[in-house]
Design brief:
With about 350 residues, the protein is an alpha+beta fold. The protein folds into two domains: about 5-105, no CATH class; about 125-350, 2-Layer Sandwich (BirA Bifunctional Protein, domain 2), CATH 3.30.930. It has helices spanning about 10-30, 35-45, 50-60, 70-105, 125-140, 150-155, 190-200, 240-255, 305-310, 330-335, 350, and strands at about 140-145, 150, 180-185, 205-210, 225-235, 260-265, 270-280, 295-305, 320-325. The strands form two sheets. A seven-stranded mixed beta sheet has the order 1-4-5-9-8-7-6, sandwiched between helices. A two-stranded antiparallel ribbon has the order 2-3. Helix 5 packs across helix 10 (about 330-335). About 30% of the residues are buried. It binds phenylalanine. Phenylalanine binds near residues 266, 269, 300 and 323.
Length: about 350
């Protein structure tokens, strides 16, 4: 300030009067349309670092000593007064802005709530089961159902399991309390017995469902899904068996993949085998998924044992047949490239929502 030295208390009072007037006319100019932004601008103009009031405070330094206390007092009163007014204006402006917003976006509280309904998706096991059933229906199979809580007879004895077979031990099978002969089925093979007792040959049946074993780790859950298939008729041979396995695996995973049988043992088939599919990831070259073998183990199968036919009253002279069974969960993991079996049963929407609504 060039004339700083001549600045007196009177000048100061005059200046304060000027500032008050400017403030009043600024506000008058804003009129009814008080916006929070405009109030903010006013604050800068008067109280900001280079504002009018701040300028006056600076001038205080160059005033005669005796005038300083009086001038300081009035300037402070001015500052406090403006601060108070600006604060009140700010609140008024914000309320005005809110009112304006509510007027433009009228809220009718009597309207029904708008719920966002996401479209559901099918569980990967359901998708896999549907794909398999579609294929088996094409091959002329009928879909059958059977109990998950069953008697030892259907799950074991009638399937030619001897009384001391290790699968009957507590560690593998869930027994229903107080009823030693009632269990949670350990495989879907129990449906072979139920179906054969209820129907007459020829039979061409598939039966998907939940199965249970006392087993829990990275690749085993106590509840899992299997699908059972069996054919009983006159003149059924191993060529038919191999043909059906080959056909459905290729239909589901790709025509260019090979299948193979490896000799194995199950009490209810003779001869028995396990069937493998060429690795869907490396196509037989060997990788982490197939543990460098080039093959994936899919399930068990074999020609139905004469003792099973005996147990259900079929003539093993007249009829032959084959049966197979495999895990649906494992197949879903292969098809959808899942790394952890447990994801299938944790019910996380983030995971499950990624799958389609139909196969
Ligand atoms: N039930 C057998 C299992 O769970 C699979 C199987 C079914 C084997 C039919 C042969 C014939 O391991």
């Amino acid at each position: 300030m060039s004339d700083a030295k001549t600045y007196t208390l009177q000048d100061c009072v005059k200046k304060i009067e000027d500032i008050r007037q400017t403030f009043a006319s600024d506000i008058a100019q804003l009129g009814g349309q008080l916006q929070p932004r405009a109030v903010e601008d006013l604050k800068v103009k008067f109280l900001g670092r280079k504002g009018l009031v701040t300028e006056l405070m600076e001038a205080l330094k160059s005033m005669p000593k005796e005038d300083k206390p009086g001038a300081g007092k009035v300037i402070n009163e001015l500052r406090q007064g403006l601060e108070k007014e600006l604060e009140a204006l700010k609140i008024k402006a914000e309320e005005g802005a809110l009112d304006q917003h509510l007027n433009q976006h009228r809220l009718d509280v009597s309207l029904p709530v708008q719920v966002r309904r996401g479209q559901g998706s099918l569980h990967p096991v359901t998708l896999m089961r549907r794909i398999l059933l579609t294929e088996f229906r094409r091959l002329g199979f009928t879909v059958y159902d059977g109990p998950e809580v069953d008697l030892d007879f259907y799950n074991f004895s009638a399937l030619n399991f001897k009384d001391d077979h290790p699968a009957r031990d507590m560690q593998d099978t869930f027994f229903i309390a107080d009823r030693a002969k009632t269990i949670l089925r350990t495989h879907t093979s129990n449906i072979q017995i139920h179906a054969m007792l209820h129907e007459k040959p020829p039979l061409r049946i598939v039966a998907p469902g939940r199965t249970y074993r006392c087993d829990s780790d990275l690749t085993h859950t106590p509840m899992f899904h299997q699908i059972e298939g069996f054919v009983v008729d006159r003149g059924i041979d191993m060529g038919d068996m191999k043909g059906v396995i080959d056909r459905f695996l290729k239909a589901v995973f790709g025509e260019d993949l090979e299948t193979r049988l490896r000799p194995s043992f199950f009490p209810f088939v003779e001869p028995g085998a396990e069937f493998d599919l060429q690795c869907v990831a490396c196509r037989g070259k060997g990788c982490r998924i197939c543990k460098q073998t080039g093959w994936l183990e899919i399930g068990g199968l074999g020609m139905i044992h004469p003792n099973v036919f005996e147990a259900v009253g079929y003539s093993s002279e007249e009829y032959t047949g084959f049966a197979f069974g495999f895990g649906i969960d494992r197949m879903a993991m292969l098809r959808y490239k899942l790394s952890d079996l447990r994801q299938l049963f944790e019910g996380q929407q983030d995971f499950l929502g990624q799958f389609p609504t139909y196969p």
